[in-house]
Design a protein that fits this description.
The protein has 24 helices and 17 strands. The protein is globular and about 75 Å long. The protein starts with 6 loop residues before the first helix and ends with a helix. By secondary structure, the chain is α+β, with helices and mostly antiparallel strands. It comes from Ancylobacter dichloromethanicus.
Length: 613
């Protein structure tokens, strides 16, 4: 773990380094060694630390072409970027994905900080490599080949001192650096958990690389801890015939190898034997004698085997109360009647999970579910992403063009998340598509008929946006025929049970548990980021947990420890009960009898609590 360095110590180190050189005082005592190495590299390049670097962003067309080349990386990273989004929103951060050179492809997060960050060119289309932008988390992590946190004055350029950044390089199965993931926020805020969250996210991304492209090869999934097989913390080794051809970092570490082993080492050089049967867990032993557990895929394959697909991970639906489940059931009927549905709720309340559940339960469940986060796609790219384009529509466009996400949803469901963030110009184009049921790609292509059901979601009050002139009134009336309201986590009763249920979903290892005190603290916290923020906190605790030792309160972050630990009062619980009743009544269109049946209580009880309180 990185040792915390005080801002005063960093300022002293900067003064000595930039005014007097290295001198006799050991700067390593004031700043971490990777930061000092980066400062030296920047000084050798002649970078002026007092200036603001001249960073010319790519044009919209150039950025679109670059993003197209990295489409697979962006797709693989999207779940983790979405997962980090809640933390970014609540801590005033942005989540950033770059290519291997440090060029920012995507940036998603807190709008206020994003505006400040843009003043120092921390936005899509700008190169944040160390050679051009000095010491920074993205550029320095790519040079050092390891996760790096750079706080405040540790940045080489003075103007970047407003930033606190944590980044980790992303490696493909062949050991090549393909990009970096970063969380950046204001230096004045404590971001001590950011680097851990980024490292966990990169683990997940690198693990997802092995879900495709390895047909015809033997894949060994191994771990020293049997319970971690099947998780993103397992090691993966890929063999062609008997030769190691791909791996992840965990797999190489478990057999005492490094990336130079690819193409050079054989299975017998790394392990005493490979398992011979699939779908079973085998006890293995490395050449160093260490005990391991592993599962093999493609063990019985011939010279050109076809790997059986891995069983799909069961999608878990949203954690909902009876009233919300009833509202979702009605939303399914709306989808089947081709009536658009709007899902409203605070950030992190599970709007996309609810949309996926509606899709799964509907007659369109066999068709595609295409999710588009209107706030996550840069404004310069969203039009081509949604509507597609013809060959030669703009400089850098793919030769064969692109179908666009609206056409990808053919026969299924199109989910437009955070539709309140859609630019006005695109709102008018979307309205025409919904009215005419056809899409015209960029570049003058012929309109194409489309058939999809529409689900939209937002954390904003669209009526207020309409009044402010930032959302089209006609589009609002077109998409809001039926609205599902998702309550914030803090308003739900039985929050301890919610914490337990979400822990069981996220943590496969039954030996890892939470102490009662830890559960109570988690339940008492307000969770401004709702389920998504709670899920992020639980993932961090799972990474810190040890088998058979319940996670204690001492591992909780400071903001949760500072929240009141006492359980909710009787008055609070009573208010939550009445609120749940009101939601049920609203979901049932004011029908008291139906709402009472949904809640499993007598009609008279519901009537008395709501109308005679």
């Amino acid at each position: 773990m990185r040792q915390e360095v005080s801002p005063r110590a960093v300022l002293a180190a900067r003064k000595q380094f930039f005014q007097h050189g290295l001198g006799d005082r050991p700067l390593a005592a004031l700043v971490p060694e990777p930061i000092l190495r980066s400062w030296k590299r920047c000084a050798e390049r002649g970078l002026d630390s007092a200036a603001l670097p001249r960073l010319e962003p790519l044009t919209a067309h150039e950025l679109s072409a670059i993003a197209e080349r990295h489409e697979r990386l962006r797709r693989l990273c999207r779940p983790e970027i979405e997962s980090l989004y809640a933390d970014a929103m609540q801590t005033g951060c942005v989540v950033i994905l770059t290519d291997a050179e440090g060029l920012i492809l995507d940036a998603l997060g807190n709008a206020d900080f994003a505006a400040r960050a843009a003043q120092v060119a921390l936005r899509p289309g700008v190169l944040w490599g160390e050679s051009s932008t000095g010491t920074n988390a993205v550029g320095t992590a790519l040079v050092e080949g390891r996760p790096i946190a750079v706080h405040g004055g540790e940045h080489y350029y003075d103007p970047h001192g407003i930033l606190s950044c944590s980044a980790a390089p992303i490696l493909d199965p062949y050991g090549h650096t393909v990009g970096a993931l970063d969380m950046s926020g204001p230096a004045a805020v404590d971001h001590r958990h950011a680097l851990g969250l980024v490292r966990l996210a990169v683990e997940q991304i690198e693990h997802r690389f092995f879900d495709e492209d390895f047909s015809g090869r033997r894949i060994l999934r191994l771990q020293a801890d049997r319970a971690l097989l099947g998780t993103s913390r397992e090691g993966v080794l890929v063999f062609e015939d008997d030769r190691l051809v791909a791996a992840n970092r965990a797999g190489l570490g478990l057999v005492g190898a490094d990336w130079s082993a690819l193409g050079e080492k054989r299975a017998g050089d790394l392990l005493e034997r490979l398992p011979e049967t699939e779908s079973e867990t085998h006890a293995l032993r490395g050449r160093g004698g260490g005990a391991l557990y592993g599962r093999i895929e493609g063990a019985r394959a011939s010279l050109h085997p076809v790997r059986a697909p891995r069983p799909a991970r069961r999608e878990e639906g949203p954690l909902l109360g009876a009233a919300e489940r009833a509202a979702l059931a009605r939303a399914v009927r709306m989808v089947e009647a081709d009536v658009p549905v709007l899902i409203r709720g605070e950030t992190g309340t599970g709007k996309e999970l609810a949309a996926r559940e509606i899709h799964r339960l509907s007659a369109r469940g066999g068709g595609p579910f295409v999710a588009v986060n209107c706030a996550a796609i840069p404004e310069t790219l969203i039009e081509s992403e949604l509507f597609g384009y013809e060959d030669g529509a703009f400089t850098g466009a793919r030769r064969q063009g692109r179908r666009g996400l609206l056409r990808e949803a053919e026969g299924g469901v199109l989910f437009l998340d955070e539709i309140g963030d859609m630019p006005l110009a695109l709102q008018s184009r979307l309205l025409r598509v919904l009215q005419e049921r056809e899409v015209a790609p960029l570049g003058g292509g012929r309109p194409v008929k489309v058939d999809f059901a529409l689900l939209c979601a937002t954390h904003r009050d669209l009526r207020l946006l309409v009044e402010a002139g930032s959302f089209r009134q006609d589009l609002y009336f077109r998409i809001a025929h039926y609205t599902v309201e998702l309550p914030p986590l803090r308003s739900l009763p039985d929050r301890v049970e919610i914490v337990r249920a979400l822990w069981r979903r996220l943590v496969a290892d039954e030996r890892l548990t939470l102490s009662e005190g830890c559960e109570a603290r988690l339940a008492a916290y307000g969770w401004p980021g709702n389920f998504r923020q709670l899920a992020g906190a639980l993932r961090v605790l799972a990474a810190l947990a040890e088998p058979f030792r319940p996670v204690g309160e001492d591992l909780l972050p400071p903001d949760i420890l500072a929240a009141p630990a006492a359980p909710a009062s009787a008055e609070t619980l009573d208010a939550l009960t009445v609120e749940a009743m009101r939601r049920a009544l609203n979901a049932c269109g004011g029908n008291v009898s139906q709402a009472a049946r949904t809640l499993g209580i007598n009609r008279s009880t519901l009537y008395r609590r709501l109308f005679h309180a």
